[in-house]
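User: what does the whole thing look like in 3D?
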Amino acid sequence: MKPAPFDYVRPDSLGEACAILASDVDTRIIAGGQTLVPMLAMRLARPARLVDILRLKELHGISTEENAIVIGAVTRQVEVERSEIIRRSLPLLAKALPWVGHPPTRNRGTVGGSIANADPSAEIPLVAITLGAEIEIANPSDRTRMPADEFFIGPMLAAVMPGDCVCAVRFPLWTQARVGTGFHEVSARRSDFAFVAAAAQVALDQVGRCIAATLGLGGVGDRAIRIDVAPLVGNVPTREAITDIVRAATKALDASSDLHASADYRRRVAATLGIRALDDAFAEAASGHGALP
Amino acid sequence: MEPCHEKIAMKVRLNVNGREREADVEPRKTLLDTLREDFLLVGSHAGCEHGVCGACTVLIDGEPSRSCLMFAVQADGYDITTIEGLAPAPGELSIVQDAFCETHGLQCGYCTPGMILAAHALLERNDAPGRADILEAISGNICRCTGYGQIVEAIEHAADRLRKTNVPRGGRP
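Assistant: Here's the predicted 3D structure for the full assembly of 466 residues, as C-alpha cells:
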C-alpha cells in the first residue's frame, strides 16, 4: 500500500464534517480524490484522517438562482460536462470542461475539488476567475461567500482556514441577449496540464457594440488572472482593437518559467490565445449561437 | 513524525460484477489492491498507481474510473465492473474483447483491460463513435506497444459489429 496509514470517516452532514475538520488540523477532505489520492500515493500528503464528503446530498447538484448558477462542491465534473443547464446558461464552463483531465478523472473528480486545489493551470478555477464567481465556504459556525479573486492566493493555495469546507461555486448569470464565449489551451498533450489557457466571455447589443467583456488567463503565473479588457466595451470590436488591448495587457505579465515553457513563451502564448478566445467569443455572440439565458 | 502504524481494518461490502463481496481492508487500501488481493480479480492491472496510466480502469456505475484513485472504503454502494465482468460466459469473449483480438489491438496486454473497459463504456453511450470520440474515450489510457492505431481500429470494428447485433444497450453484455 503506497499511502501512509490514515483513518477514514464518512459523516452524514456538512455540520458533522466541519466539526471533525475543526477538531483536528491533520484531517483532510476527500471527495473525488483525483488530486489528493496521487498525493497520498507519493506521500506528498500524510493526513491522519480523511473526511469523505462525496455523498453529502446538500453539497451536490446544479441549480439556477436569479442571478447565478450554483454548482454544489461534490458535483462531479462529468455531470457539469453533460448538463443541459450548463450548456445553455454557463457556456464558458461547458467549453472548458472537456479540457479538464480526461474522461476517467472527470467521472470521479468534483467541481469543488478542482476549486479547493487551486492549481494555477486548472480550467474550472480559470472560469471562476474569468466570470467573477463566488466560492461558498462552510465552517462549524458560519457559511460565507468569497470572490474567486480573493479565494485563489497562490499555486495550490486557497484562502481557506482549517475547518473550512468549500460547499458550492456561484457563477454569475449573464442575461444579455447576445452572449458569446471562447476557450483555448496549449499543453504538451491533450488533457495534460495547461501551459496557458485563455477564457473569454462577451456580450453585444443589437447594433453589434460590445456591452460586456471579460478575459481570463490560466497557467501563466501563480494563479489564474483576469485581464483588463474594459476598453473594448462601448465599441464595435475590431481585430485591431482586440490585438492591441490583449498584447498591451500581457506584455509585462508575471509569468512562471519551467522545463516545459519559459516565461517569455508563456507571455507570447497568453497574448495569442487571449486574442483567439475573444475572437471566438465575439464571433459567437454576433452569430447568435452563444448563450440563450 | 509519527511512527507508521497500521490502522484497524474496516469491513467493506462491494458489488463487483453483479456479486456482493466482502473484505476487511485498511482505509489506505485502494479499490485496485482490494480487487486484486482480496477478490483475486487480477485483470485490473497495477501500472503507475497514481492515476496516470489507466491500466487499473474499472467501471463505477458504468463509467470508466481509476481504481488506484479510489479507496475500497469509498466504493460501497456502487456497481463495479472489472474486465472479468464483460465476458458473457466462462471461456467466451465480449464483442469488444473479440474485436481487440481480431484487429491485433493488443501486444503485451498490460493496458488492454483498461482499454477494453473504456471502449465498452463508450459504446454503451454512443452507437457510432467518430474517430475523435474514440480518441477522447481512450485518452486516459496509455499503451506503450501498439501506437494506438490498432486499438482505434478495434473499437471501430466493435462498434460496427455491435450495430449489427440485436443486443440492447445500456446494460452489461
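In plain terms: Residues 10-84 of chain B form a domain with the Ubiquitin-like (UB roll) fold (CATH 3.10.20.30). The two ends of chain B are 50 Å apart (CA to CA).
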